[in-house]
Amino acid sequence: MEGVGSDAGSTVAPLAKWKNDFSMAFQYYLDRSTPHPVHRWLGTLAAAAIYVLRVYCVQGYYVVSYGLGIYILNLLIGFLSPKVDPEVEVLDGASLPTRGSDEFKPFIRRLPEFKFWYSITKAFCVAFLMTFFSVFDVPVFWPILLFYWVVLFFLTMKRQIMHMIKYKYIPFSIGKQRYTGKKFATSSSGLPRD
Question: Does the global pTM surpass 0.85?
Answer without folding.
Answer: no
